[in-house]
Amino acid sequence: MLRIQRQLPDRYTDATLEENEARIVAAKAALGEKLFILGHHYQRDEVMKYADARGDSFRLSVLAQQHPEADYIVFCGVHFMAESADILTEDHQAVILPDLNAGCSMADMADLDEVTEAWEQIAQVTDIERVVPITYMNSSADLKAFVGEHGGAVCTSTNARAILDWALDRGDKVLFFPDQHLGRNTGMAMGYTAADMSVWNPHKDMGGLEEADVKASTFLLWKGHCSIHQRFRPEHIEAFRAEHPDGIVICHPECPHDTVSMADQVGSTDYIIKAVAAAPAGSTIAIGTEVHLVNRLNDETPDKTVISLDPLVCPCSTMFRIDAPHLAWVLEQLVAGKVVNRITVDPETTEWAKVALDRMLG
Ligand code: SF4
Predict the structure, then answer these.
(1) Are 200 and 221 in contact (CB under 8 A)?
(2) Which segments of the chain does DSSP mark as H helices, in order?
(3) d(CA 105, ligand 1 centre) in Å
(4) Contact between residue 224 and residue 254 where contact means Cβ atoms under 8 Å apart
(5) How far is the CA of 226 from the centre of ligand 1 (A)?
(6) Which residues contact 239 (CB under 8 A, 6 or more apart)?
(7) Ligand 1 centre and the CA of 125: distance in Å?
(8) Using a 6 Å cutoff on CB, does residue 106 contact ligand 1?
(9) Which residues are CB-neighbours of 47 under 8 A, at least 6 positions away?
(10) Phi-psi label, residue 208: left if phi above 0, alpha if psi -120 to 50, beta otherwise
(11) Residue 60 reports pLDDT greater than 80
C-alpha cells in the first residue's frame, strides 16, 4: 500500500538525538494529558522511552480507548495499529502515526479486492455460509470490516486458538488471513494436521488449489507471512541447543511451523514477556521475535541472558521508521495547533470492524 511521508524539515533530520529528545520532552510537557503516546514492543528505545504505555497492538488500542481525555493519540507502531486505535477511540481523538511509511509487510499481503475475490471463488465450489473468515489483528481496517460483515472475527496471537474454536463451532471451514503461519501453528495446536490445511495463493486462480482441496480443507490459509518471524529456522534452534543445552527457546507463533514445533514454548509478545519473567534466574533464553523486544528483555532482566534465536536477525524495517526526529516533528506540530499524519477510518468501515472486534471479545 502506497503511503507518502513528506520529507521532515532539516531542523529534525540534522539535529542530534539529544536535541530531538529535548523537543519531545518539551512538547510532552506542553501537551500534558491531551497527549497519549503508545509504544509497540518492537519500537526502538529512543522512541519507547517516551511512550506512556507499552504493549501489543490490541492492548494499546484498548488503552487509547480508555483515555478519552487524550485528544491526541500518537501511535509509535505501524499503520494497521493506528487504524485499530482510530476504530476504538472517540471522534474527538486524533490518532497520529509519526511516519506514514511505517506499514506492515504482512498486513499488506492481503487487500480487500484479493480477499473479496477469494471469497467469491470459494463460494463457487463450497457452501459459503459454512465458511467463517478470520483476520489476524495485523490487517487493514477494511479487512476487519469484511470479516465483520461476513460473520467472522478478528484474532490476536494470544487468542487465535479460542477464536478458531469459535469459528469452527459456527462453520466447517475457516478462511484465515493474512498470516499462514499463525493459522497453521494454531490449527496444529488444536489437533488438526497438514492434511486439513491448504494455502490460498491470492495471485493464482482459485488460490492455486484444486476444487477438491478447497472442499476438503478445514483451514484455507492465506499465503502471507511476517518477513521478520519467517527468518527463524530449526537450524537456529539446533545451534543454540548445541551451545546452551539447558537453554530455553521461546518462539512467536508467526514463525514457521517446523521452527515452532521444536521450541520449548510458543506465544505472543505478551506471553514471551511473562515467560522470560517466570524463567529461573541464570537462564539463557533464545527468542524468536523482533530484536528490539529481545534486547529490551535482556536489558531489563539482568539475572537472565536473553538473546535473539537468529544471531543475524535484523529489525522490522517498518517499525524502525519511527524515530526521534519523526516523533519530535509530530509533537511540535501538535503544540503549534497542527495535526499531521492523522489516520482515520471511515464510519462504515469502523462500524463493521467493530462488529468483528466485538465478536473477538465475546
Ligand atoms: S514484525 Fe512482522 S508483523 Fe510485525 S509489523 Fe513488522 S512485518 Fe508486520
Answers:
(1) yes
(2) 10-13, 17-31, 45-48, 57-65, 79-88, 112-125, 141-149, 160-170, 180-189, 211-216, 234-243, 257-260, 269-278, 291-300, 324-335, 347-361
(3) 7
(4) no
(5) 6
(6) none
(7) 33
(8) yes
(9) 39, 76, 322, 323, 324, 327
(10) left
(11) yes
State how far the alpha carbon of 340 is from the alpha carbons of 179, 273, 329, 343, in Å: 31, 33, 9, 9
Q: What is the percent of the chain with per-residue pLDDT over 90, rounded to a whole number?
A: 97
Amino acid identity of 344?
A: T
pLDDT tens figures, 264-321: 999 999 999 999 999 999 999 999 999 999 999 999 999 999 999 998 878 999 999 9
| Residue 86, ligand 1, Cβ within 6 A | no
Tell me which residue has its CA closest to atom 3 in ligand 1: 226
Residue 315: CB atoms within 10 Å: 15
Ligand 1 neighbourhood includes 283 CB (under 6 angstroms) = no
* Nearest CA among 313, 254, 296, 306 for reference residue 276: 306
Q: Give me the residues paired with residue 197 across strands.
A: 219
Longest CA–CA separation in the chain, Å: 63
